[in-house]
Write a structure and sequence with these properties.
Residues 1-36, 57-114, 130-240 are annotated as: Disordered. InterPro entries: C2_dom (IPR000008), C2_domain_sf (IPR035892), PLipase_D/transphosphatidylase (IPR001736), PLipase_D_C (IPR024632), PLipase_D_fam (IPR015679). This is Phospholipase D alpha 1. Belongs to the phospholipase D family. C2-PLD subfamily. The protein is 17% helix and 19% strand. By secondary structure, it is α+β, with helices and mostly antiparallel strands. Among the domains are: 306-328 and 356-461, C2 domain (Immunoglobulin-like); 494-689 and 705-737, Endonuclease Chain A (Endonuclease, Chain A, 2-Layer Sandwich), CATH 3.30.870.10; 838-944 and 957-974 and 1025-1122, no CATH class. Strands 11, 22, 23, 24, 25, 26, 27, 28, 30, 31, 32 and 33 form a twelve-stranded mixed sheet that branches. A seven-stranded mixed sheet has the order 12-21-19-18-13-14-17, sandwiched between helices. Strands 6-3-10-9 form a four-stranded antiparallel sheet. α10 packs parallel to α11 (858-871) and α11 (858-871) runs parallel beside α12 (893-919). The radius of gyration is 30 Å and the shape is globular. The chain starts with 72 loop residues before the first strand and ends with a helix.
Length: 1124
């Protein structure tokens, strides 16, 4: 499909691009929804394929006569070849330019502002009157603070009501500035519209970021035809609101470089969201100095805020006649050029060749940057021809194309083109040349234009999401990812580090088979022991003292370090790639453990005189970024992948590659079983492995922190992709820098497996037929990673899309984990089950604090999936298990901030579900809790004779340690990173559901997605009962302590209510004064959700028992990038 050159895509015949009459309200009656259209727009070459031939049904409307225009400046079609200009009018429009029409239109009182060359205004196109109406609202598809009133039980207090305002062009670009990560709490009033305060960090990025992905100073671009000058509208109005504006003497408003590519993404992902308090047009670095950038304000009256839920297919082609934004720079260069040659070169550096703008385009919707082109150096006529295939789930009035200059002092605004979302609802291609308007609503330069095309395809027309996991030989898996679908092989799914025999009930699968509970660390131990060629390990933390086996066998005393050293002495290549914690150091014999206590320096020293090679890999931003950005990335972000890669027996005297991937690091505190003991193993299994970072000070007699996690083993072609990830990272990390260039490189440490004859290649690995009930398709290996952490990404950003990578300003990004989650959620038909260490996202749709930048789509997609099913009168359920609080002290600033963002995420989801219930008139019959529930895990042990006695000090009776010893309870820390959809698809890996893990430029992550083609709804036409079903049932058996029949139908209301009831009962037992043994660990998350979706603390339980800290968090000033 290629609509980018189509002449028939969008009919440019509407002199009023923004219809002023709101279509009639849709009929929300109860009958079943209309059947989906029979046309199938799915098409494979693009990540989110669809066809423009089937426009989205648009509401029936009739405009017999255009309404009187409001004072406005719109983008209208311009034509350079007409002979007579129309008379001036008080409005101007921003629409495609047309150079080929020969006749001017008759004068009209509603025509555009005077332009010194003629142009054409087209008649209104007829609107089909046979299609159903979508829901169109003036404010938002999801309004907060609904004025509806419902009878409620006494325990559900009435939520406060907010007053949504009609958005208009007068305020749509107001109060935009950079996010201040360290701003005070006053920056964030509940309304989210307060003024900003200066950043604690100076905006040095602007002074140090004159770097580009493509710095081709000799690049030539096609010369555009000379265009007549454009006279700006005399009536264009511009309103500047808010404080902290910064500009130079020429009123040039500056944005900021996005050194981290914080949410500025192209490809299958969306980027940074902003509220009215923050600018989507100044690409923020993660330190986010508080500068405000004003964008063009064009008075257009009220625009309809519509929900775009589907995909946008965008092409940014080129721009012509851009202004030279570097005149000051050129003058500075000329001045330095008069100095002696060597002096001038040293002072000026590479600036002497910089003579004009370095433009790029950011694409924004609803305040979130969803794509960005690469920078083209020194061009006033840049040609990008860059495509974006973007999933969207945003409420917005317009899509903005912001043209900016990447300058040595920052990113300077050139101008903006705005496309109303209402035009996109037709589903046709909107394309053309558009005048680029500056911050005064006038053309930024006579003849300055941007050529774009954009098409919206709603979810109803994306057949890839309609039938769950695809089946058949043509299924391509998750589109738009770096690693493709790999068929064949097997997957072993693990819960916790160890599951003792007989610990969990037997589970029956289809065809008389039984689910086998895996033993993760035992399998890893055995795989290392049996390796003959290579053992490659990546980890956030790897501790040489950890014991993988603790069941009393002969190998129970063997540590990981001893095992790896023994294998290296056998000739096995052993490589460890471990995150280098910047706070742990070993300088001249002086050592520091580091804040995170990852044991990285300790492990490196242990293997120093062995053939085991340990590479401590810092998280770096790359030399193209500013010093501040490099410091931030190196201090805050981590390498978070956890993989073990070994060679294994392939039969016939051949070897193959297998890989372990998931959330378990090989370090202290991770070994646990489904019983999750608190006190009873302190003197046995966990005697030398006590871990509980919640407490500070004396921890004698305190409960350990139980650890719940998910992991998997991949045996098949996809294991080679995990190997490729390790090789790409190793080659990048081992590249010598500075004085290390004098030493030998680590490059030779990697084995070239293609040269080892007994190791079979990816294409030769044994595969299991998809007709085999035990066969698997490992869809893809997914990652969150950027070109600063891997070697092998394209050097030219123009080649990024060929690898399904995303362009940042100075980096290429693989963010396929987020793509995989979005695809799986959209394809879900019955239920979603998530276990994750964090759950924060979709901040652009929060009622306040929209500026935070937690822009991943996952929470919003889940809420919209539930809303979709409610409107279709179909059952759907989502279960989300998270920790009771993030690891550490829950009263600390960072933890409270994370809990606060988590609460905002929950609130947004529940309110979205309530809105859907109201739309179909079911708000009295059902509550949001009938569709979405959050849980946590906890344990409590009764006193028995095996417990050690501890004499409590009277002065410490009220400390968290003393209270925990007395109450004998503690949370089970959920460190899982996985999702199960419809019992047919599973994602497991290292990625949390937050911006750090999903963005790709922050923490590095890896995950896998897999399914069994024999066990899918599409093939079986009923509940699948394969390994993924057994895995979920095993997890629920661990959490609830039982198996019930309703568990086999997780989408049913019966199952939802039963699990919620069990969670409520377990919470009461956990929080009670009486100490009793807990058989089930599943606790309803301790918040109250009323029938309108308002989330509040439980009455009488606003803080966590024993430990303290507000359950719904609190807004304490701390850097957002650390907490989202």
């Amino acid at each position: 499909m290629d609509n980018y050159g189509s002449s028939s895509g969008y009919p440019y015949n509407n002199p009023y691009p923004y219809p002023y009459h709101q279509p009639p309200s849709p009929n929300h009656a109860y009958p079943a929804p209309a059947p989906a259209p029979s046309a199938d727009p799915y098409y494979h070459p693009y990540p989110y394929p669809y066809s423009p031939r089937h426009p989205y049904p648009y509401p029936q409307a009739s405009y017999s006569q255009p309404p009187p225009p409001a004072p406005a400046s719109h983008s209208g079609p311009l034509d350079y070849h007409h002979q007579q200009p129309p008379p001036p009018a008080p409005t101007s429009y921003s629409s495609p330019l047309d150079y080929h029409h020969q006749q001017p239109p008759p004068p009209s009182p509603h025509s555009a502002a005077p332009i010194p060359y003629p142009y054409n205004v087209y008649p209104v196109a007829p609107i089909p009157d046979t299609v159903p109406q979508p829901t169109l609202q003036h404010h938002s598809s999801f309004q907060y603070g609904s004025s509806y009133h419902y009878p409620q039980p006494s325990q559900y207090p009435t939520p406060e009501s907010n007053n949504p305002q009609v958005p208009s062009r007068a305020n749509s670009f107001s109060n935009h500035h950079r996010q201040d990560s360290f701003s005070s709490p006053e920056n964030y009033a509940a309304s989210g519209n307060t003024t900003s305060h200066p950043s604690f960090y100076p905006p040095l990025d602007e002074l140090l970021s004159n770097v580009h992905l493509s710095d081709n100073n000799n690049q030539t671009t096609p010369t555009s035809p000379s265009a007549p000058s454009m006279s700006p509208s005399s009536t264009a109005l511009t309103t500047y609101q808010g404080s902290s504006l910064r500009y130079d003497e020429q009123n040039h408003f500056y944005g900021d470089p996005n050194d981290s590519f914080s949410s500025s993404w192209s490809g299958p992902y969306l980027g940074r969201a902003d509220s009215s308090n923050y600018s989507a047009y100044s690409d923020s670095s993660s330190f986010n100095a508080s500068q405000m950038q004003i964008v063009p304000l064009q008075q257009k009256g009220s625009l309809k805020v519509l929900l775009l839920h589907g995909n946008l297919d965008i092409c940014v082609r080129d721009a012509k006649n851009l202004p030279n934004m570097d005149l000051f720079h050129k003058t500075l260069g000329d001045m330095f050029g008069k100095l002696p040659g060597n002096v001038g070169n040293k002072i000026e550096g590479h600036m002497s060749n910089k003579i004009t703008s370095d433009p790029y385009v950011s694409i924004s919707i609803g305040g979130a940057v969803i794509g960005r082109t690469f920078v083209i150096s020194n061009s006033e006529n840049p040609v990008w021809m860059q495509h974006f295939h973007v999933p969207v789930a945003h409420n917005a009035p317009e899509v903005h194309f912001i043209v900016k200059d990447n300058d040595v002092v920052g990113s300077q605004l050139i101008g903006i083109v705005s496309i109303p979302v209402e035009q996109l609802y037709l589903g046709e291609v909107v394309e053309g040349f558009y005048p680029i308007m500056n911050n005064s609503g006038k053309p930024c330069k006579p003849g300055a234009i941007l050529s774009i095309s954009i098409q919206y395809t709603p979810m109803e027309k994306l057949s890839i999401y309609h039938h769950g996991v695809g089946t058949g030989p043509d299924y391509v898996g998750v589109p738009g990812t770096y690693f493709p679908l790999r068929k064949g092989g097997t997957v072993t799914l693990y819960q916790d580090a160890h599951v003792p025999d007989g610990c969990l009930p037997n589970l029956k699968l289809d065809h008389g088979m039984s689910y086998v509970h895996g033993q993760c660390w035992r399998d890893i131990f055995d795989a290392i022991c049996q390796a003959q060629r290579l053992i490659y390990i990546t980890g956030w933390s790897v501790w040489h003292k950890v014991r993988l086996l603790r069941d009393g066998g002969p190998a129970s005393d063997c540590t990981l370090g001893e095992l790896l050293r023994s294998k290296s002495r056998e000739g096995v290549r052993v490589l460890l790639l471990v995150w280098d914690d910047p706070t742990s150091r070993n300088i001249l014999g002086y050592t520091t453990d580091g804040i995170m206590q990852t044991h990285d320096e300790e492990t490196r020293r242990f293997f120093k005189h062995s053939s085991v090679q340990v590479l401590l890999c810092p998280r770096i931003a790359g030399k193209r970024h500013s010093w501040i950005k490099q410091t931030e990335v190196g201090t805050i972000y981590t390498h978070h992948q956890k993989t073990v890669i070994v060679d294994a027996d392939a039969g016939n005297n051949r070897r193959k590659i297998i890989a372990f991937v998931g959330g378990l690091d090989l370090c202290d505190g991770r070994y646990d079983t489904p019983q999750h003991p608190l006190f009873r193993t302190l003197q046995t299994v966990h005697k030398d492995d006590y871990h509980n970072p919640t407490y500070t000070g004396n921890v004698v007699g305190c409960p350990r922190e139980p650890w719940h996690d998910l992991h998997c083993k991949i045996d098949g072609p996809a294991a080679y992709d995990v190997l490729t990830n390790f090789e790409e990272r190793w080659l990048k990390a081992s590249k010598p820098h500075g004085i290390k260039k004098l030493k030998s490189s680590y490059d030779d440490a990697l084995l070239r497996i293609e040269r080892i004859q007994d190791i079979v290649g990816m294409l030769d690995t044994p595969c299991i037929s998809e007709n085999d009930p035990e066969g698997w398709h490992i869809q893809q290996i997914f990652r969150s990673i950027d070109s600063n952490s891997v070697r092998g990404f394209p050097k030219d950003p123009k080649d990024a899309l060929k690898k399904n990578l995303v362009c940042g300003k100075n980096v290429l990004i693989d963010m396929s984990i987020h793509t995989a989650y979005v695809k799986a959620i959209r394809a879900a038909q019955h239920f979603i089950y998530i276990e994750n260490q964090y759950f924060i996202g979709s901040s652009y749709n929060w009622s306040s604090y929209k500026n935070v930048g937690a822009d991943n789509l996952i929470p919003m997609e889940i809420a919209l999936k539930i809303a979709e099913k409610i409107r279709a009168h179909e059952r759907f359920a989502a279960y989300i298990v998270i920790p009771m609080w993030p690891e550490g002290n829950p009263t600390g600033a960072a933890t409270q901030r994370i809990l606060f963002w988590q609460h905002k995420t929950m609130q947004m989801m529940y309110e979205t579900i309530h809105k859907a219930l109201v739309e179909v008139g079911l708000e009295d019959a059902f509550s949001p809790l009938d569709y979405l529930n959050f849980f946590c895990l906890g344990n409590r042990e009764a006193v028995d004779g095996s417990d050690p006695t501890f004499q409590e000090s009277p002065t410490a009776a009220n400390t968290p340690q003393a209270l925990s010893r007395k109450s004998r309870r503690f949370m089970i820390y959920v460190h899982s990173k996985g999702m199960i959809v419809d019992d047919e698809y599973v994602i497991l890996g290292s990625a949390n559901i937050n911006q750090r893990s999903m963005e790709g430029t922050r923490d590095t992550e890896i995950a896998m997605g897999a399914y069994q083609p024999y066990h899918s709804w599409a093939r079986k036409l009923s509940n699948p009962r394969g390994q993924i079903y057994g895995y979920r049932m095993s997890l629920w058996a661990e959490h609830t302590g039982t198996i019930e029949d309703c568990f086999t139908r997780p989408e049913s209301l019966e199952c939802v209510k039963r699990l919620r009831t069990m969670g409520e009962m377990n919470w009461k037992q956990y929080a009670a004064d009486e100490i009793t043994e807990m058989k089930g660990h599943l606790l309803k998350y301790p918040v109250e959700v009323d029938r309108k979706g308002t989330v509040r603390p439980l009455p009488g339980c606003e803080q966590f028992p024993d430990i303290g800290g507000n359950i719904v968090g609190s807004f304490i000033a701390i850097q957002e990038n650390l907490t989202i």
